[in-house]
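Below is a concrete protein record.
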Amino acid sequence: MSAVGLLLLLLLLPLISAQTFHWGPCPTPKVQPGFNLSQYLGRWYEIQKLPASFERGKCIEANYSLRKDGTIRVLNSQFYKEKVRLAEGTAVVRDMREAAKLGVSFSYFSPYGPYWVLSTDYTSVAVVYSCTDVFRLFHVDYAWILGRSRFLPPDTVRYAEQLLIGEGIEICKMKATDQRGCKDD
């Protein structure tokens, strides 16, 4: 590794300490063929995830809705430090030929990050992956298993985990999200 690469790694290490990072470029998993955005919209509950510094609470959920301008409103919520925390973002379909590869941003100043729907049946489970290369030296990735209900059958969770593993995504740091004691609308 070059001196510049090592310096970059040392500068970024505090930022990625709560993330999952690996040497080398991102894997390129297959995404949901024939993805139907309108069926995907609505509320999804986080069942499991790879560590993410922006998700530390419980009762984590995401609600996706279509805006008049064709973008997707992303409203994430979690219960953290005794209160509900919200984060609103925007998602876009970057290429209609691969509609399952969305881009998501939570700030006007940040670029759209990848949000790839690897698999979904639209009614019970979705498997989502995001990965960012850093100069092809290493990558930071996120993965989520989402459900239309707060709890999924163990067989469904195992199916989702096996799908991630089969696509070359390491899930040894994946953790269950606490969905107990949540206030439902």
Q: What stands out?
A: The first strand starts at residue 20 and ends at 23. Confidence is low (pLDDT under 50) at residues 4-18. The first helix runs from residue 3 to 16. The chain has three helices and ten strands.
